[in-house]
Amino acid sequence: MSKQLYTLEYPVRCSPTILFEFLATSNGLGEWFAENVDERNGRFYFGWNGSHEEAEVVDQEEERFIRFHWAGAPKNEYFEFRIDKSEITNQTILVITDFAEKRDIKDQSQLWDYQVKELFHRLGN
Question: Boundaries of each START-like domain copy (predicted)?
Fold first, then answer.
């Protein structure tokens, strides 16, 4: 069964510059995304409760987006953090794109909600 692409959007009260630091650096990601984060040569090593995952940065644009590919995942699957601006309110929007089995999208979305809540706490939102 192939995974489906889904996106989540979160309004953020923070400058794109500061937000990008939390999305694209090992120190920033270590504040909210994983317990341990190391980065070497465009590869990020994430640790949670004794388990470890590796992801490669496959594309990025400073203060706009960063796209990661999990080691071992199908080549066309990724997860991405994108920083958009609402044209109406001019508010910063964090857009997360990920892949999951259709039956798992709700659970994965709740996990992202929890992670983003931790990010907002670190940002003072």
Answer: 3-124
- The string of DSSP letters for 1-41 reads ---EEEEEEEEESS-HHHHHHHHHSHHHHHHHT-SEEEEET
* Residue 59 in tokens: 């594309």
Domain ranges of the chain: 4-123
Alpha carbon separation from 121 to 22, 25, 39 (Å, rounded): 12, 18, 23
Indicate the average pLDDT of the chain. Answer: 94
Instruction: Measure Cα distances from 68 to 36, 46, 57, 80, 86 in Å.
Output: 17, 12, 5, 6, 24
| pLDDT digit string, tens, across residues 2-21 | 799 999 999 999 999 999 99
What is the distance between the alpha carbons of residues 26 and 34, in angstroms, rounded to a whole number? 10
Q: How far is CA 109 from CA 50, 59, 97, in A?
A: 23, 23, 10
CATH code reported for the domain at 4-123: 3.30.530.20
Query: Is the alpha carbon torsion for 67, 59, 10, 17 positive or negative?
Result: positive
